[in-house]
Amino acid sequence: MVALALVTGTVLAQGMLPKLAVKSTYRVGFAQTESNNPWRLAQTKSMQDEAKRLGYQLVYTDAAGSTAKQVADVRSMIAQKVDAIFLSPREDKPLAPVVKEARDAGIPVILLDRNIDPALSKAGADYVTFIGSDFILEGQRVANWLIKNNAGKKNIIELEGTTGASPANDRKKGFDDTIKKAGGFKILASQSGNFARDTGRQVAETLLQAHPDANVIYAHNDEMAIGAISALEAAGKKPGKDVLVLSIDGEREGVQNVADGKINYDVECNPRFGPAAFRTLQGYAKGTKYPAKIINADRDYTLATAKSGLAGSY
């Protein structure tokens, strides 16, 4: 056994997860990636509400879209000797080393929503588990809807999420692989819109000008889809009719656009992590063994279901 000198004084073997004592209250870090859209705001609120309900202290940080700041945020939590850290990593590779730093400091990490590159960091060895949606499946669900409901529209523009983020990587893989296997479709262009509404609008405008024959837009999230709707309307095209619009997230404005016929299909990605996150933390302290991934169940929205789903959206 190779012993390591740790910030907390705990001694761990390489690859061994730190233990967490069973206590009536915890001081827990939550390193958020950004707060520039309804999905992130809903996730943060869920975490804060659950911590308050349990009487836990939540040390909250917002990386404001900066990977470097998020690394610094986690290191600050390590220095503060929090009991555990919840992390939504902005990118899947740069956050891997700091996850190991927390592990070596005797602080267990639970990943939320976004994962770490499995070649660089392992569940059960470097962090406890990942809680989130199956991003590959989300992309597959969008592709399968399009395969069945395309009405002859098969020329696709893809608006990707943040480069290096696991949802962007997996939502692209799930969709692209399924569409390629189906045959008969063409992805005319694929470019990052950084999961942001205005960037998505700008990218959509540029790609629509370059590819006037595009009749499908697949956006990796609702914010970019809503931006693409603005680009389509500015170009004199009817979103949902002239050009099919497909999306992921299920935020309230996205679902309203489904109900209005401007988004044709939207797969939910549930942001309400608080109860599951803290339940997992408590279980881990009691010795529960968790799989590498805990997958959330997500619904989807079509014109037939969007109006009834609005009340439960975020």
TrEMBL record:
Which ranges carry the Periplasmic binding protein domain? 28-288
* Gene3D superfamilies hit by this protein: 3.40.50.2300
In terms of Pfam families, this protein maps to: Peripla_BP_4 (PF13407)
Signal sequence span is: none
UniProt keywords (A-Z) are: Signal
Q: Which superkingdom does the taxonomy of this entry point to?
A: Bacteria
Q: Where in the cell is it found?
A: Cell envelope
Q: Which GO terms describe its molecular function?
A: carbohydrate binding
Q: Which GO terms describe its cellular component?
A: cell envelope
Question: What does the similarity note say?
Answer: Belongs to the bacterial solute-binding protein 2 family.
This protein is called what? Sugar ABC transporter substrate-binding protein
- Source taxonomy: Bacteria, Thermotogati, Deinococcota, Deinococci, Deinococcales
